[in-house]
Structure formats: C-alpha cells, structure tokens
Amino acid sequence: MTGGCKAQELVRVEIYSQLLFYSFTAFMKKAFFELHIAILLAGFTGILGRLITLNEGLLVWYRLLISSVTMWILFAATKKLQRISIKDILRLSGIGFLAALHWVSFYGSIKYANVSVALVCFSAVGFFTALFEPLFYRKKINVVEVFLGLVVIAGIYIIFHFDPKYKTGIILGVICAVLLAIVMIIIRQFVQRINPQTLLTYQLSGGLITLTFFMPFYLKKFPTSYIIPDFADWMWLLVLAWFCSVLAFQFSVNALKKLTAFTVNLSFNLEPVYGIILAFAIYHENKELGWSFFTGLSLIVLALCLQMWRVWRQSRLSAVRAVS
C-alpha cells in the first residue's frame, strides 16, 4: 500500500514537472516572439521613411507628435507614468532633441541614398558607443570593441569610396549613428530610477517641443511646398508612430520582463539586417547596389556576428564563475 502511494506520488511529481517545463517553454517562446516582432517593426521604419513623401524634418516632427500624444494618453490611462523632477524633465528633453536629430539624419540618409545604405551606416552605432563611452564615464577603452567598430567603418568606407552617388546619404547616416550612440550613453544614467514608459514619453515630448522651435529655421534652410501630409502619408505616419514606435516599444518592454537585458540588447543588433532584407524584398534595392555595397555589408555583418558571439561568450563565462 505504501509502495503504491509512493509510486502515485512520483507520477504526480513527474506530471507536475512536465507541466512546469512546457509552461516555461511556452512563456519563453512568447517572449522571444514579442522581441523579434519589436525588432522587425523597428526595421520597418526605414521602409516607411522611403514611402512617406514628406521631407525628413517634417516626417520626424509628425512622428513625434503622434507618438508622444499617444503615449501620454495610453500610459496616463494605464497609470504607468511616474512623477519626475523638473531637472530630469529638462535633461530628457535635451536627450529627446538629440534623438530627434538622429531620426532627421536617418531619414535624410534614406532620402539622399536608400534604405539599405542608411541601415548600413546605422550599424556603426556600436563603434561610436565603444569610442565615446570611455570619454563620458572615464572608463578604459575596450580595444576589441573599437577594432570591431573599425571593421564596420571599413565596410562603410568601401561603399563610400566606390559608390560616390551615395556620398550625402552616407554622411547623414554616419551622423545618425554618432547621435544615437551619444543618446544611448547619456540615457543609461536614467534607466535605473525612471521606468521605460515615463522615460520614453518625456524623451519624445521633449524632442517634439525642441524640434518645433527649430522647424522654422529648418524649413527656411530646406524649403518645401509640401507641409501638410495627404491621406496616404497620414496613414503611413500612423503606422510609423503606432506600430513602429508605440507597439514596438510595448513588445520590447514585455520581452524585457521575461528575458535578460543582455538578450534584448544583443537581439536588437539584428535590426539593420531585418531592415535591409525588407528593403531588398519590397523595393528590390539589391538591384540598385553594386559589388562594393555587398563587400562592405559582408564586413559589417562579420563584425556584428563576432560582437554577438563575443558578448554571448562573456555572459556564459560570467554565469559559470557565478555558479562556481
């Protein structure tokens, strides 16, 4: 009788363990699915940048307007906005302005070159981050990261040197990467004490307000007769703001609750790759590009793969040391 009870208990434990395993597996699969949907939506911003006919400054202004208003309504209704000091608001507004300039230069790169070239230049963010972060926080320069970044720069140079028609687009793309690296470095000091919803809402709102102030000067320097979007552009702007900004952010936050920050950050290295694949599939940009682009792209993908492998290996070694 006792043996029978023990056998039944072991069966129950085994069934319970299997249920837990399958539940955890489904949970993680959902997290990875949400993460890659977020990355795919982020990669789709380049496609929309070519599709929307507004100039790059107005495109970013409308994107910020729709996104920030949506976030204020959504996050206030769900009580996810926290109170922050005036000092933090002003700092986040400054970061928002740099982020807005990053987007203006990114979409300018698309307008003057194409989606693929803009995203290739976007890949240089890692190099500039490795270069600038020690200057901001007085840390030792990571020689390996700088070397891998130089491989990316070499890839961009090959494209620049042999395809001079993309000169303006490449310059704007590199400026875009520099600005994003600075934004990512500065914003790290806020992420430990301000939740992501509050951080992004104030950043986008600050970007909108500061960009609004500079728009008259921008439009004087780069005049355009097309200021109010037509119906088609409004629809694509809503897709850009609601899906590629708000929804992508929600998916990435959901994934971050279940996955490590390391996994999320590492996976976002795939954003340029996803974007280039989409550009090839939708706009057939691969037919517009010569051998120099694919040579440069190969170097950049190699550098990204080596960096992903290197960070993954370091995380595994850290985990082993922690267990030991």
Tell me about this structure:
The chain is mainly α. Helix content is 83%, strand content 0%. The chain has helices at residues 2-51, 56-77, 86-112, 115-122, 125-137, 143-162, 167-187, 196-221, 231-258, 261-267, 271-283, 291-323. Helix 1 (2-51) runs antiparallel to helix 9 (231-258), helix 2 packs antiparallel against helix 8 (196-221) and helix 3 (86-112) runs antiparallel to helix 7. The protein is globular, with a radius of gyration of 23 Å. The chain starts with a helix and ends with a helix.
What are the secondary-structure elements, in order, as H or E?
Answer: HHHHHHHHHHHH
- In helices, the fraction of residues equals over 70%
CA-based gyration radius: 23 Å
Q: N- to C-terminal separation? A: 43 Å
Q: Spans of 5+ residues with little confidence (pLDDT < 50)?
A: 9-27
Integer average pLDDT: 81
Beta-strand proportion: under 5%
Count of discrete domains: 1
Major β-sheet, in short?
none
Question: Structural class, from secondary structure content?
Answer: mainly alpha
Specify the number of helices: 12
Approximate shape? globular
Number of distinct beta strands: 0
Q: Which keywords apply here?
A:
globular; 324 residues; mainly alpha; 12 helices
In short:
The chain has 324 residues and is an all-alpha fold. It has helices at residues 2-51, 56-77, 86-112, 115-122, 125-137, 143-162, 167-187, 196-221, 231-258, 261-267, 271-283, 291-323. The protein has one domain.
Please render the helix and strand layout as text.
Elements: H1 2-51, H2 56-77, H3 86-112, H4 115-122, H5 125-137, H6 143-162, H7 167-187, H8 196-221, H9 231-258, H10 261-267, H11 271-283, H12 291-323
Helix pairs in contact: 1-4, 1-9, 1-11, 2-3, 2-8, 2-9, 3-4, 3-7, 3-8, 4-7, 4-11, 5-6, 5-7, 6-12
